[in-house]
Structures are given as structure tokens and as C-alpha cells.
From TrEMBL:
Coiled coil: none annotated. InterPro entries: IPNS-like_FE2OG_OXY, IPNS-like_sf, Iron_ascorbate_oxido_reductase, Oxoglu/Fe-dep_dioxygenase_dom. Residues 1-81 form the Fe2OG dioxygenase domain. Pfam families: 2OG-FeII_Oxy. It comes from the Eukaryota. Transmembrane segments: none annotated. This is Fe2OG dioxygenase domain-containing protein.
Length: 112
């Protein structure tokens, strides 16, 4: 069974998946399985991190896939700012350049 695909809105979702796997990412117009590697964490870029980077990094479209033969388990830690905090790229860290439109600031409560 294939779950809905989505983008994470938080900053950096950190995923530990078991050896059953089941994480797919959408790259180059097709779905790719993320092969589980023992002891390795998967770190996705979320929407907040994409905004902090001024669009240099983008949130990854992904989905969960479960099978009827083996139970899948995963553990996810979501890191995001408090709802009242202003999220915007740091002026001194992210130069404005062609192809990277400056992201205006927003409060997390309006983004999530």
C-alpha cells in the first residue's frame, strides 16, 4: 500500500527506518526507494529549512510504502521553530543571486 506523498513543513525531519524500509523520494520525475542502511539516519529538508536557505535547498517530496508481508517501523524526530518566531533567511549567510528569489519572513503559525 502506498501512502500519500507530501512535503514536510518543519525544518529538518530526522528519520530512522528499520531494515524493512518503505521510504520513497521523488527525484527526476520518478519515485526512488531509500534503501535502509543499519545505523544511518535519513535527514530531509523541510519547508522551514528551504526558507532559511532562501530556496537554495528545497523540501523533498516523499511517501511511505507498506507491504503486506512484513511490519514496518520507523521513528521520526521533527525539528521546527516555535509558532511565534519569525522565520527568514539570514541576510549575511544567503546572498541574493539570480535564480534564487529572496524568501520573505513568516511566522511558523502561518506556515504550518
Amino acid at each position: 500500500m502506498v501512502g500519500a506523498h507530501f512535503l514536510d513543513t518543519n525544518a529538518l525531519p530526522i528519520l530512522h527506518q528499520d531494515l524493512v524500509g518503505g521510504l520513497d523520494v521523488f527525484v527526476d520525475n520518478k519515485w526512488h526507494k531509500v534503501r535502509p542502511i543499519p545505523g544511518v539516519l535519513v535527514i530531509n529538508v523541510g519547508g522551514v529549512f528551504a526558507a532559511l536557505s532562501n530556496g537554495i535547498y528545497s523540501s523533498s517530496l516523499h511517501r511511505a510504502v507498506v507491504n503486506s508481508h512484513k511490519e514496518r517501523r520507523s521513528l521520526v524526530f521533527f525539528m521546527c521553530p516555535r509558532a511565534d518566531k519569525l522565520v527568514k533567511p539570514a541576510e549575511e549567510l544567503v546572498p541574493t543571486s539570480e535564480g534564487h528569489k529572496k524568501v520573505s519572513g513568516f511566522h511558523m503559525v502561518r506556515f504550518a
